[in-house]
Amino acid sequence: MKNQLLLTAILAFCSTVLLAQTDCSNTSTGNIPLNDLGTDTFMGYQGGLYPGGENVMPYDHRAAGSQIGKSIKPPNADGEVDWENGVVIFAAFGASTAGNTFGTFKKLVKQDTTGKYNPCLAFVDLTFGGKGLETMQPPGQHWYWYAMKDSVLAPAGFTPAQVQIAWMKSGSKDDSIVEFPLQPDSIYQKYVRAVVRLKDSFPNLKILYLTSHAYGGYAGDSSNNVEIAGEPAAYYGGFAVKWLIEDQIEGSPTLKFTNPGAEAPWMAWAPYYWADGTTPRTTDGLVWECSDYSPYGGGFHLSNEGKEKESNMLIQFLYNDASSKKWFRSANKWTNCDPSPRYASGQFPPVSESAGPLIYPSPNNGTFSLRLRKDASGAIIRIMDEKGTLVYSEQLDHYSTFNRNIQMTGTHPGLYFVQVLYGTTQETATFIVQ
Predict the structure, then answer these.
(1) Listed residues 345, 380, 396: the one ending a domain
(2) pLDDT tens across 38-78, in order?
(3) Alpha carbon distance 344, 364 (integer Å)
(4) Across-strand partners of 426?
């Protein structure tokens, strides 16, 4: 009976994957974007991105962010200011939807030939496909933070002391009951704990920009994760971010960003991406067409056009906001930086456009073949179970055979997550063990 139930679950999972296509018929929900809602309310809760239904942050908080932005300097591996060898790290956190946009963002900055971006900048992708805020929760998820530091930062030659700025777009797989305000309130509480843990892991983190998901209406009922990335969950997620930032602005001691005793980085909205499908936002005309989404991305993974839309909005924000323009733009004070290892100069490895590592067969019994990239010579392979426990790890300093035979021992039936690191680029995939 147990095996029969497992087979049923596996078939259900496979069917979900096969049917995870966009549903282009759902072009609107009727909900009003937060920046259009303003002082009006949704189910009794005020709109606007900031307190009082405003879309502009309060003067004192803006002034504090501006001062922090002006204070950004390039630290070396020990966290000490070093204008010759230091680097300003801008890191991304979240799941694959954040990682996909951040990859395009890096590529667009890299392609710039005008020299308008800070040559001391390094963009580091610390997103983790398939994992959301539930994975960042202390005290039981230490593996996530160690994985980010040991598997991504360290191989790239960086340390946690060099991370000063971050962008986060996330959700929570634990919060699949789509009720308001229950769902966004639970996500908001997870954000609070994750942000405090973020500051603990990256003690020099000064600025954190937050973004909620874009329109999720094209995720059909059969789409995987529709309860957390479809509608109205994507719309609700904006309230979670709003409440988090409002808490800090209103003086929450848990989210204190000033020294001494800072518990969190200074926080603000990055671009607010949600618009009601094809209905233009009043504030700026933003719409989300079905073509902005990958045909087989479940209705929430963006197409190349969609990723460029989000990325260009992020670039414009960073280039012009008072908290970011002093470190995002090029200026005389940055000219001493050695540009050779910087993403902004185009010297880092290109962002992978691969769909991810190929696994055959899947489902399997713990023994399978993993297809590696042909344009890389070394890789780090990490496999975790659904609880985030590391069950397999292998470092390949050099490989000539692209099909790597993997044999896991002591595994149990369930869903597994594989992460393959090629230098500073990561690819991810999931598979099932029967």
Answers:
(1) 345
(2) 999 999 999 999 999 999 999 999 999 999 999 999 999 99
(3) 42
(4) 421
Per-residue model confidence (pLDDT) at position 38:
97
Instruction: Answer whether residue 1 shows pLDDT above 50.
Output: no
Last residue of a domain, one of 313, 345, 377: 345
By DSSP bridging, strand 45-46 and strand 88-94 are unpaired
DSSP secondary structure, 109-147, as one string: HHH--S--B-TTEEEEE---TT--GGGG-TTT-HHHHHH
d(CA 87, CA 116): 17
Q: In what order do the strands lie in the sheet with 390-396?
A: 390-396, 379-385, 414-422, 425-433
CA distance 275 to 349: 34
Q: For residue 129, what are the domain limits?
A: 34-345
Q: How are the residues of the chain apportioned to helix, strand and coil, as percentages rounded to the nearest 5?
A: 35, 20, 45
Count of residues for the chain? 434
Burial class of residue 411, CB neighbours in 10 A (0-12, 13-18, 19+): middle
Same-domain status, 411 and 335? no
CB 427 within 8 A of CB 416: no
Please report whether residue 169 resides in a domain.
yes
- Listed residue (429, 392, 375) closest to 129, CA to CA: 429
- Enter the tokens of residue 242: 């709003």
H/E segment holding residue 407: strand 403-407
Q: What is the mean pLDDT of the chain?
A: 85
DSSP state of 402: S
Report the greatest alpha carbon distance in the chain. 70
Give the whole-angstrom CA distance, residue 238 versus residue 112.
Answer: 31
Q: Is 129 left (phi over 0), alpha (psi -120 to 50) or beta?
A: beta
Which string of b and e fits 182-215 if b means at least 16 CB within 10 Å? Answer: ebbbbbbbbbbbbbbbbbebbebbbbbbbbbbbb
Residue 145 lies in a domain: yes
352 falls within a domain: no
Would you state the structure tokens that stand for residue 98, as one six-digit string?
């954040």
| pLDDT surpasses 90 at 280 | yes
Residue 2 lies in a domain: no
Are the C-beta atoms of residues 213 and 272 closer than 8 Å to each other?
no
Instruction: Indicate if 334 and 364 belong to the same structural domain.
Output: no
* Per-residue pLDDT tens digits for 10-37: 323 333 333 357 889 999 999 999 999 9
Instruction: Identify the H or E element spanning 166.
Output: strand 163-169
> What pLDDT, on the 0 to 100 scale, is given for residue 21?
73
